[in-house]
């Protein structure tokens, strides 16, 4: 980390010195790191720093070395900075407090509260029902916070997989019926009457858990406009197997909408009716991306195929 970024962290935290405690993770395709920084003589013992550095060569784990992907990533970091600067204070559910955002040349620094130290130290690979319910509550609060808002400075259409940003994955998709229906599926989602901001990457790995089961969300690179069902479908697919996805579908939707109706200023059954009808459409939309991006991915299963086939028939 360069001297300027080091000075920013010291100034904003009031620390007398700092040191790299650990690398939490590398950013996708070599675009930097997320680091836990230890602090001396500060109000807190540590912060988490997202340090974005543009790679000299574009490397992708699945072979997507393209300018489209590069530009998408660049925009995603700009979106995350805008999110924290402009919108995060309106967000009701728990998320890390943003301490500083700085940019210099081809590098960006986002300094965040350390959620581990704040009481959210747990990461989960499997969830029980109360934990699933907590994540659905977080999503409902998030969506209720931005109903009807315009995503200025964010993605016009939220999520990292939406059709306009994934032409290459569509081009090589070998499912002819899904390929032919992709545009109609996308339009059905984008033309919904009731829109909010979607998190855009609401997978299990982006939730941090407290010991009492409460959650905080992280990673706001793909926040943008859209139907909340995109987040719900993507979250469910990230943490349940196919039999659980099918068996719990009604319970998941009932729970989410119970939370959403509670969080809205007044009950809106028209919104609930519209969004319920789009849950499986959102599922088919992500399935379209996944089959083009990684045809052997573990999330491609018989439930997703049946849901998608039904969506195509009903278009």
Written description of the protein model:
By secondary structure, the protein is an alpha+beta fold. The chain folds into two domains: 3-113, Phosphorylase Kinase, domain 1 (2-Layer Sandwich), CATH 3.30.200; 129-314, Alpha-Beta Complex (Aminoglycoside 3'-phosphotransferase, Chain: A, domain 2), CATH 3.90.1200.10. The chain has helices at residues 3-13, 67-87, 129-145, 167-172, 176-190, 229-239, 242-247, 249-263, 269-293, 302-314; strands spanning 17-26, 32-40, 46-53, 98-104, 107-113, 196-198, 207-209, 215-217, 224-226. It has a five-stranded antiparallel β-sheet, with helices on both faces. The protein has a two-stranded antiparallel sheet with strand order 6-9. The protein starts with a helix and ends with a helix.
Radius of gyration: 20 Å
CATH-scheme architecture of the largest domain: Alpha-Beta Complex
CATH class of the largest domain: Alpha Beta
The quaternary structure here is: single chain
Binned strand content: 15-25%
Which range best describes the helical content: under 10%, 10-25%, 25-40%, 40-55%, 55-70% or over 70%? 40-55%
Tally of discrete structural domains: 2
CATH superfamily of the largest domain: Aminoglycoside phosphotransferase (APH), C-terminal lobe
Arithmetic mean of pLDDT: 94
Salient structural properties:
Aminoglycoside 3'-phosphotransferase, Chain: A, domain 2, 44% helix, two-stranded antiparallel ribbon, five-stranded antiparallel β-sheet, 315 residues, alpha+beta, Phosphorylase Kinase, domain 1, 2 domains
């Amino acid at each position: 980390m360069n001297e300027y970024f080091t000075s920013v962290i010291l100034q904003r935290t009031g620390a007398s010195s700092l040191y790299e405690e650990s690398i939490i993770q590398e950013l996708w395709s070599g675009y930097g790191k997320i680091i836990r920084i230890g602090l001396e003589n500060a109000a807190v013992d540590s912060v988490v720093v997202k340090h974005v550095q543009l790679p000299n060569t574009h490397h992708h784990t699945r072979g997507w070395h393209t300018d489209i992907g590069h530009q998408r990533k660049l925009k995603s970091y700009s979106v995350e900075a805008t999110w924290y600067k402009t919108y995060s204070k309106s967000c009701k559910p728990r998320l890390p407090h943003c301490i500083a955002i700085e940019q210099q040349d081809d590098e960006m620094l986002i300094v965040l509260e350390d959620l581990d130290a704040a009481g959210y130290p747990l990461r989960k690979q499997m969830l029980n029902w109360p934990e699933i319910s907590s994540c659905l509550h977080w999503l409902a609060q998030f969506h209720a916070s931005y109903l009807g808002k315009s995503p200025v400075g964010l993605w016009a259409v939220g999520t990292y997989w939406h059709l306009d940003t994934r032409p290459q994955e569509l081009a090589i998709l070998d499912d002819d019926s899904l390929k032919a229906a992709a545009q109609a599926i996308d339009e059905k989602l984008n033309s919904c009457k009731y829109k909010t901001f979607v998190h855009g990457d609401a997978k299990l790995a982006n939730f941090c858990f407290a010991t009492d089961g409460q959650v905080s969300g992280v990673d706001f690179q793909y926040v943008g406009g859209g139907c909340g069902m995109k987040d719900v479908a993507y979250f469910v697919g990230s943490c349940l197997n196919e039999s659980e996805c099918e068996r719990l579908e009604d319970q998941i939707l009932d729970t989410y909408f119970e939370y959403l109706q509670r969080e809205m200023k007044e009950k809106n059954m028209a919104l609930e009716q519209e969004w319920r009808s789009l849950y499986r459409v959102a599922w088919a939309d992500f399935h379209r991306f996944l089959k083009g991006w990684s045809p052997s991915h573990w999330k491609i299963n018989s439930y997703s195929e049946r849901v998608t086939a039904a969506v195509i028939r009903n278009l």
